[in-house]
Design goal:
Length: about 160
């Protein structure tokens, strides 16, 4: 699994690093975008900074750098976790996408989207399996009311009451 993480994340981080060091290195993948789009993306990226801080404040000592649960791990369901099960991935991916648009670079955006695909198909299912092992029915119930990366707007049963 670690090898797959490197395979999917290396292009993202290396492309961003290359752009930071010398944007001309990625000039071959320039994306013609209107300044208004780039400015809007900058606003989104800047808004993600306090949102990521909110995630870290909410999760506290339950943060882990890999797909694992700690012995004293608690199920966090407050803060952004009230609506989204994986808000760090949500805000992280949103930040990388926004910065790619600010940089007006399709390769950076493409690498981010490939990384997002890996998170959605490989990382989240493994994390959730571990969380189900740890928290059982409590986590399964939590999943019914929250979205993985975006909030659930309509919960089961809400349509019948509407």
């Amino acid at each position: 699994m670690a090898g797959l993480r490197v395979l999917f994340t290396a292009p993202v981080f290396l492309s961003f690093l290359a752009y930071i060091i010398n944007p001309d290195w990625l000039a071959w993948s320039a994306l013609p975008l209107a300044n208004e789009v780039r400015l809007g993306a900058l606003v989104v990226a800047l808004a993600c900074i306090p949102a990521i801080g909110w995630v870290f404040t909410s999760i506290g000592g339950n943060i882990s750098e890999t797909v694992l649960t700690k012995a004293n791990h608690q199920l966090v369901m407050h803060g952004p976790y009230h609506w989204i099960r994986h808000p760090l991935y949500t805000f992280g991916l949103l930040t990388f996408c926004a910065v790619s648009l600010v940089a007006a670079n399709w390769f950076m955006l493409f690498a981010t989207l490939i990384g997002a695909l890996a998170i959605i198909t490989l990382v989240i299912p493994r994390e959730e399996a571990r969380l189900i092992d740890k928290f059982g029915l409590a986590y399964m119930d939590y999943r019914k009311h929250t979205g993985a990366l975006i909030p659930r707007m309509l919960r089961r049963g809400d349509a019948a009451r509407a």
